[in-house]
Design a protein that fits this description.
By secondary structure, this protein is an alpha/beta fold. The protein has one domain (2-91, 133-337): Ribonuclease Z/Hydroxyacylglutathione hydrolase-like (Metallo-beta-lactamase, Chain A). It has helices at 32-41, 59-62, 65-72, 80-90, 98-125, 227-232, 247-252, 257-264, 272-281, 302-314; strands at 2-7, 14-18, 23-26, 51-53, 76-78, 174-176, 183-185, 188-194, 203-209, 215-219, 238-242, 289-293, 323-326, 336-337. The longest helix has 28 residues, at 98-125. It binds zinc ion (2 copies).
Amino acid sequence: MRMTVLASGSKGNSTVIASAETRVLVDAGLSCRELMKRMALAKEDPAALDAILITHEHQDHVAGLSVLARRLRIPVYFTEPTHRAWIRMMTPRTTMTYAKWLEHVQREKEARAALDALETAEARLQPDLESSGPKPCDASGLIQIEAASSDVEAEEEDAPEAVFRRDSASLPAVEYFQPGTNFSIGDLSITPFTTPHDAADPCGFVFESASESIRMAIATDLGYMPPNVKRALERIDVLLLESNHDLEMLKDGPYPWAVKQRVLSRVGHLSNHATAEFLARDYDGNATYIVLGHLSETNNIPELALLSAEEAIRERGRLLGNRILLAQQSAPIVPICL
Ligand SMILES: [Zn+2]
Ligand SMILES: [Zn+2]
């Protein structure tokens, strides 16, 4: 199994998890172009991705989502509340008069009819278009709410002139999962767990490959470490764990008081201190690699986060075998393979 952290931090998050047969991207918090660039740097083939999984709808986790999903024509897995919140976020709120609204509905109808006509013509020209659609995935027990559509435009982020540009919240396919309920994509078994964070329905993930019995987890954007997260992080071989801020730097830093309160709250982010406390007291010491992630560029220094976690581990002599790495905001880290 392999974990490739493409980006981690308050300005964008994205990680590839790969088993023998399946590859998924967790979060798409950079532009599509930047994600493609980072995958190339890390030698991860975007065309081999089977799905995108979303932890929650904050911008640093979804910035490139719609463009990337449409470009790769792969399904996106959300919880239903997260999907709804994301759609609301992507839908610009405008007020208009009734007459303007009628005009808008009429224009949409015409655009849809034109698009349908174009798609029909394309389908006639390319009867095997289906074969280039999303890859099959075993999502038994999940609700498929949108059939895969054949995107006709070669979509570019910087091509606003595209005539039939789709609704910004449209995706090739959407699958719902529920925190606490295990599901599979190919040979990858996935258990989402609820995290305390100020989003609609935030979660972390545990990934397990049936053939390799290796377990990897992603746990970031946590206000604190509740018992369900501690339980989810037992017997993990590679753990991407939040170490967001240094308490003193945050308190003395430039953020407005309300933002400081939000970060410090039980639905904000884990401090270096809180992460160290978890490692010292509750962590089972199982991981070969602990990757510290979601560091704030304003309120943390990577060396401080590392020192704090290493000290916590050092207090527990038998855990010296655990390697602690730092994820980066600006570049992918070397893929971790077990
Ligand atoms: Zn968040
Ligand atoms: Zn975040």
